[in-house]
Amino acid sequence: MSFIELQAETELGKGYLSELERGLVVPTVVALNKIAIALGLTLADLVAGGSPREELFLLTRALDKKSVLRLLDVAHRLAPPSTNARGGES
Question: Rounded to two decimals, what is the model's pTM?
Answer without folding.
Answer: 0.55
